[in-house]
Fold each of these.
Amino acid sequence: MKSHGYAAHDPKSPLVPFNFERRDPGPNDVVVEIAYSGICHSDIHQVRDEWGGSIYPMVPGHEIVGHVTAIGSAVTKFKVGDRAGVGVFVDSCRVCDNCKVAAEPYCAKGMTPTYNGRDNNGDIVFGGYSNNIVVDEKYTYTISPKLDLAATAPLLCAGITTYSPLRHWKVGPGKKVGIVGLGGLGHMGLKFAHSFGAHVVQFTTSESKIADAKKLGADEVVITKDADALAKHASSFDFILDCVSAPHDLNQYLSLLRLDGTLCLVGLPEVPLPVGAFSLVANRRSLAGSMIGGTSETQDMLDYCAEHNIVSDIELTPIDKLEEAYARVVKADVKYRFVIDMATLPKG
Ligand code: NAP
Ligand code: ZN
Ligand code: ZN
């Protein structure tokens, strides 16, 4: 099947228009015409090969929403014209212990990422900065007509990546929860933690984001370079979700955890971060991590958002302004997720 989009060909050059082929839809596949595609900081890490091992040409994009234009003969969840979403992975082995409990991001054989990876035939997979995508319906999500479609795109990564750990660590009423970094992931973490009924403290390096953080649901906002403000929260948090994309001091946040508290990393800085043993042994603290969320949990999250009227705060961008959008994300200057309007994609 013919497709076209924007691709990176190496870590340094801007993305450019690119024509490519996708597999023809099989019995279990849906073809989604992409309406909107979110820009995740992971796109930038991978385009620029900051984690190593990037595969080019790379069509990024794993926050995908659109409409179904064709279905395979065995598809039951979708009909032509339905809204559909695709997230960070498009397949997994389906039979390992983790797949069997719908924890597919932790598939023992490795999940198939939406882009920057290869499918079972060894072919490069291409993501959502494109006009269409072919995905097995098991890895495709239904989207309520109640949700604004463009603002739903970021739920497919930023949404599920924050929803999953907040659910896993049972964030809710009576819990004091911190969110570190008010970017794409952080602002969704803040919305969910607030919606689940926790007392939420937003940590930010950006004084300009204080008012927004309160509007998004923060009970308190702490500027991270203010040592006195941090000290007031020492040993008081049940759970802190760290959504920061760049190197920073984890010990500063570990010291804020109460007895048995957990600091969970979802941010993926490109270098290892030093952790002092004393930061952990005090208060019997845990340092954890979490990756995206499974297929059932992703559908649960989308349904929860429809029920509770939660979407992302977005800035729509045309696809020929990717470089400007990337530069602003890296400067922590996005309110709070860029979404590409795929109607601006030139014909292939
Ligand atoms: P983003 O929109 O760029 O947000 C990152 C935020 O981190 C910024 O807005 C900023 O918040 C803060 N920050 C940036 N540089 C900083 C620095 N030098 N020191 C301290 N704080 C800094 O990025 P995102 O799309 O939310 O992604 C965040 C990270 O999560 C990325 O590393 C991404 O690759 C990773 N990620 C992980 C998963 C997973 O499954 N675990 C899934 C998706 C993304 P303030 O202005 O408020 O300080
Ligand atoms: Zn992402
Ligand atoms: Zn598996």
Amino acid sequence: MEPANKHGSECGAVVITGGGSGIGRTIVERFAQAGEAVLIFDHNEAAAEQVTADLKAAGHRAVAFVGSVSNEDDVSAAFDLAEAYFDGVKTLINNAGISGNCPTIELSLGEWQRNIDVNLTGVFLCSREAGRRLIKSGKPGGIINMASMYGVVAAPNRISYCSTKSGVVMMTKTLALEWASVGIRVNGIAPGYVHTDLTHELIKTGRLDAEALNRRTPLGRFGTPEEVADLAWFLASDQSRYITGQVVGVDGGWSANGYL
Ligand code: NAD
């Protein structure tokens, strides 16, 4: 297979937020193993340092930045680091996100705000920074936003998660229109239930019924982080060069299913 993520430029890093664990870590590994320089932007220092150390030990190009996507100074500093190490950014993957699972009448303003800060403001700040730097450099690039099927279809007790992820869907389309003429493609990914530590914990504590979810999913199972990473790879590559402003589901058919 041809190398991913060409965008007409061989230099520049793939910046992956929330790249220290879960789906983000698998995406980081996918790109690094394909020869891309990766910057892991995560607020969990141990996780970010561990994945970076593992990749460097295997001979890949990687650097960690520890900070929060919802902090404007952190975001600017992360992209400064990409410039210092890898001559800038060529692809941003806005993967960092937090879940929100609570009946609306019990949801505190603080918890609502936390979801807005990470899931929505974080995507705005990182996209704005990547856009500014790509436009200044004159190089083409790409942005991939991790939405969710719950940004496309609704579920009860998830008002903060569904609202922020649907905001990510609309940000994807807005930025795609705004930046198409300067060669920046913006697309989104809408995963269904994916096997990660997060979902395993929810299953273990009885907050997710894996069997019921499998029955509801036309393909009959959870997705894997690798299946999400495959889509990220495709959307970052020249193979998707005529695709922008799209949010692609990787949900085993869940969002198409209006039946059971
Ligand atoms: P995860 O909790 O395993 O990983 C999220 C990572 O983001 C962690 O490393 C965490 O430290 C980091 N992070 C959180 N807040 C941050 C912040 N403010 N600044 C920087 N880093 C931060 O989650 P996951 O399951 O791998 O999910 C990754 C993305 O995929 C999220 O956006 C999530 O909403 C989305 N998603 C996940 C699923 C699923 O089933 N796992 C389904 C649909 C969408």
